[in-house]
Amino acid sequence: MSFTIDGKQVLTALDRYLEESRQAEKPVIHQETIETIHEQLNLAAIFREGGLSGNRLDRFLSSYLDNTTRLHHPGYLAHQVGNPHPLAALGSFIDGVTNNAMAIYEMGPAAAAIEFFMVNQLLDRVGWAQMPFDTKERLTFDHGAGVLTHGGSLANMTALMTARNHVNPNLRENGCAGGLAILAPDSCHYSVSKTAGILGIGEKNVMGLPTDRMGRIQPDQVVKSIEKARTAGHSIVALIANACTTGTGLFDPIDAIADICREHSIWFHVDGAHGGSLLFSKKHRHVLAGLQKADSLILDAHKMLRTPTVCAALLVKHAATLDHAFQHDAGYLFHEKYQPGFDFISQTVECTKAGLGLRFFLAIAAQGETGMAEYIDSCIDLTGSVHAFIASQPDFQAPYSPQSNILCFRYQGSDRQQLAIRDRLIQEGDFYLSSTTIHGQRFLRMVIISPATTLDDIKALVHTIRKVAKLV
Questions:
Q1: Helix or strand or coil: residue 433?
Q2: pLDDT digits over 318-356, tens only?
Q3: What domains are there in the chain, each with its CATH number?
């Protein structure tokens, strides 16, 4: 077996896969049963015998790729999973070969240095002070901090753990005795309530904030929610706003909420898993106005920043809050040593971390900041054009003007019919949509994230929906 030969086979297969996907030569989604896929891949024999190379490797790759969901396809409109740039994907390949567990600097100096660079770039875009290169200068002045994590759920948990320990530093050792609460809209990501359960705050103590019909926080009602929580004896760990909501792609009014949190001395966390990427867009970043007033922020590079899964960032305004949140004893890791770099292990839940910064950096390096901004702007601008087109169709409903690349819409008929239409589209394989509810009503949902998607593709989708609606 030759690494070079096998590598060439893999790259050749992937190159063909990308072209087939972009040209819509194969279905965007193809779902067989688990048993069928096992048989097609010949898993049992390969597992038993080994020797996956040559023609056998070609057959395996062909079958595997035919059973994937094609994110580069113009009909891929379903979820907030990014369209990774091929160079960024090679970053994942490089990281897989080198396998540097870079949470401590000596286990991956290059990977750690790139993550340090990427965190500082993000801090600068928010408007927070960057981390100093010299670790001896860390915390000698007020600056930000951050870490890349394996996904937004883990980033949210890290942020809220930091906020909890900031509210009461003794909770790490003594545990939660009750009385803690998180304020968040019902439209927040489910990882918030999951985190509340994990941290001992309690899922029932995630207290809702008043929202409008589209799920956006109403700032004029926030103070009442704060007073209600405190009157009930709760210490508020954090107040969370969405930038943007997962379901609709709409943004909470960050600036106004930030001022309220500052006035009432409450940690303000912004879940920017999807919309935080607009920091790279001059044209659309106005929806993030006031972000610099927050205490913490997360964003997922594997959504709108063309980075392979998974790569999320947690950022904090004040480094001390994060540095003091995860200090632990482990004699084989934490001791006096030659230290020319920075150990991210003390910033996160994770002990072993992949070189996430490399794939993130390469996603931007492939096209530059300008190219990344153009990609983001094109997705959002196209979503606006799609909204105008769909809203003009008498048999369709589009309930709001989009602020991102997410748009919910509805064909005439019942809630059951919306789901039946989606199922039929998936079976036919030309288009792949998701679905959500808004104010108790079922909507179809699209995320425009593939550079191959055009307005003509959406017009074809509308035509196809009308056709399949007659069959369901």
A1: strand
A2: 999 999 877 655 444 456 778 899 999 989 888 899 999
A3: 3-69 (no CATH), 94-365 (3.40.640.10), 376-469 (3.90.1150.10)
Roughly how many angstroms between the first and final C-alpha of the chain, as a whole number?
A: 51
Give the Cα-Cα-Cα angle 422, 423, 424 (nearest 5 degrees). Answer: 90
Q: Which of 216, 95, 195, 182 is nearest to 153 (CA)?
A: 195
The token duo for 78 is: 């379903």
Low-confidence ranges of the chain (pLDDT < 70): 1, 327-335
Query: Is 0.85 topped by the overall pTM?
Result: yes
* Cβ atoms < 10 Å from Cβ of 176: 15
The secondary structure of 143-208 as a DSSP string is --EEEEESSHHHHHHHHHHHHHHHH-TTHHHH---S-EEEEEETTS-HHHHHHHHHTTS-GGGEEE
Q: What is the pLDDT of residue 332?
A: 42
Q: Do the beta carbons of residue 197 and residue 203 sit within 8 Å? A: yes
Q: Which residues of 343-352 are buried (b: 16+ CB within 10 A; e: fewer)?
A: bbbbbbebee
Quick one: how far is CA 258 from the chain centroid? Answer: 22
